[in-house]
Write a structure and sequence with these properties.
The protein is α/β, with parallel strands linked by helices. The chain has two domains: about 1-150 and about 315-340, Medium-chain alcohol dehydrogenases, catalytic domain (Quinone Oxidoreductase, Chain A, domain 1, Alpha-Beta Complex); about 155-290, NAD(P)-binding Rossmann-like Domain (Rossmann fold, 3-Layer(aba) Sandwich). Helices cover about 25% and strands about 25% of the residues. The strands form four sheets. Strands 3, 5, 6, 9, 10, 17 and 18 form a seven-stranded mixed sheet that branches. Helix 9 links the parallel strand 17 and strand 18. Helix 3 (about 150-160) crosses helix 4 and helix 6 (about 220-230) runs parallel beside helix 7 (about 245-255). It is globular, with a radius of gyration of 20 Å. The termini are close together. Bound molecules: nicotinamide-adenine-dinucleotide (NAD) and zinc ion (2 copies). One zinc ion (ZN) binds near residues 37, 39, 58 and 148.
Length: about 350
């Protein structure tokens, strides 16, 4: 089969590999769609931290092609999505549902497909049966990004949910693959007014169509504009889907007292923190959280929202054979919504 593999840091190619055989407890999925996440660009260029070659791709949807011994409840042809965070399932944190923070991986990242295991930018992928979630009547290609571009913003919103009451304000910085879902999740599940922030005017226009009440260009005037829109107090929550120096600085400048900054993007910025009175960098009561992925329950919630039409992924379909070109488009900021590779 064809697979888009990371061969060495910075080098990924479409190669021919054997179709894997499902071992005990595993399911072989015939991939319908593999979402292309900005994290895949980080993975492509990161120093080697996992055994290579590794097939990239962690947003998986497909149909059951074969099952290993001991697997029950998954018939051939059944549509399924793969949950992102492959926790141990045994520790107390997993037992509480937070497999995305599983204790078995210490302070490191919880692995998943394309994040330590062989990923889904291929014709087939192996998934442990317990990480599969039924696709229902969702379109198998369009649904793939729900497993991360839907899941991660949903979990991020949960981390600030109690602040997002009626008449509150939520700022979403970076309305690309994750952010355009974040805007919809906030609009569908909270009382907050959403302010979308991006460098790209087309992405801001799209965010407005998806439920953002205000849009702000991400420049040196953005903080003043957001403070203006919030009567000088700032926003109860800021979701930073970029995580670069200017966006973290913006988040700190516009977070309201008692507000929550949720940093999802991995842009290598630094958030200033100075312990002074009055607070110099963050206002009183403000907090910062750094979520990873989401829980399996979050994924079920995301699918339910998608199934009732409250959220949907704006999808660009690209052939798997054009994986490289699609990565380049994402790098250049030229993907509208989420690109999904179709084998
Ligand atoms: P994307 O490329 O689809 O979207 C990024 C968006 O940010 C684009 O719309 C771009 O125009 C905008 N942007 C870039 N610089 C900006 C700036 N200075 N100000 C405002 N907007 C700016 O990326 P994505 O797939 O949505 O991923 C976003 C980030 O989230 C990446 O860093 C990715 O690695 C990370 N991520 C984290 C998790 C997690 O669990 N923490 C999960 C998935 C992705
Ligand atoms: Zn991702
Ligand atoms: Zn665990």
């Amino acid at each position: 089969m064809k697979a888009f593999q990371l061969l060495e840091p910075g080098v990924a190619e479409l190669v021919d590999v054997e179709v894997p055989e499902p071992g005990p407890g595993e399911v072989l999925l015939k991939v319908a769609g593999a979402g292309v996440c900005h994290s895949d660009l980080h993975i492509l260029h990161a120093d080697a931290w996992q055994p290579l070659p590794m097939t990239i791709g962690h947003e998986v949807s497909g149909h059951v092609a074969a099952v290993g011994t001991g697997v029950t409840g998954w018939d051939e042809g059944a549509g399924a999505l793969a949950y992102l965070c492959w926790g141990c399932g045994k520790c107390r944190t997993c037992a509480a549902g937070f497999e995305n923070y599983c204790e078995a991986f210490g302070r490191g990242i919880v692995p998943g497909p394309g994040l330590g295991y062989q990923g889904c930018m291929a014709e087939y992928v192996l998934v442990l049966a317990r990480f599969l979630v039924p696709l229902g009547d969702l379109d198998p290609v369009d649904a793939a990004p729900l497993t991360d571009a839907g899941l991660t913003p949903y979990h991020a919103v949960n981390m600030a949910r109690e602040a997002l009451v009626a008449k509150s304000t939520a700022v979403v910085i970076g309305v690309g693959g994750l952010g355009h879902m974040g805007v919809q999740i906030l609009a569908a599940t909270t009382g907050a007014r959403v302010i979308a922030v991006d460098l790209d005017k087309a992405k801001l226009a799209h965010a407005a169509e998806l439920g953002a009440a205000e849009t702000v260009v991400s420049d040196e005037r953005a903080a003043a504009r957001i403070l203006d829109l919030t009567h000088g107090r700032g926003a109860e929550a800021v979701f930073d889907f970029v995580g670069a120096q200017p966006t973290l600085g913006l988040a700190a400048s516009v977070i309201a007292p008692h507000g929550r900054i949720v940093v999802v993007g991995l842009g290598e910025g630094t958030l200033p923190f100075t312990a002074t009175s009055p607070p110099a960098a963050l206002p009183w009561g403000a907090g910062v959280v750094k979520p990873y992925g989401g829980t399996r329950a979050d994924l079920h919630d995301v699918l339910a929202l998608a199934q009732r039409g409250a959220i949907s992924v704006t999808v660009e379909r690209h052939p798997l054979a054009e994986a490289k070109e699609t990565f380049e488009l994402l790098q250049l900021g030229k993907v509208a919504g989420r690109a999904v590779l179709v084998p």
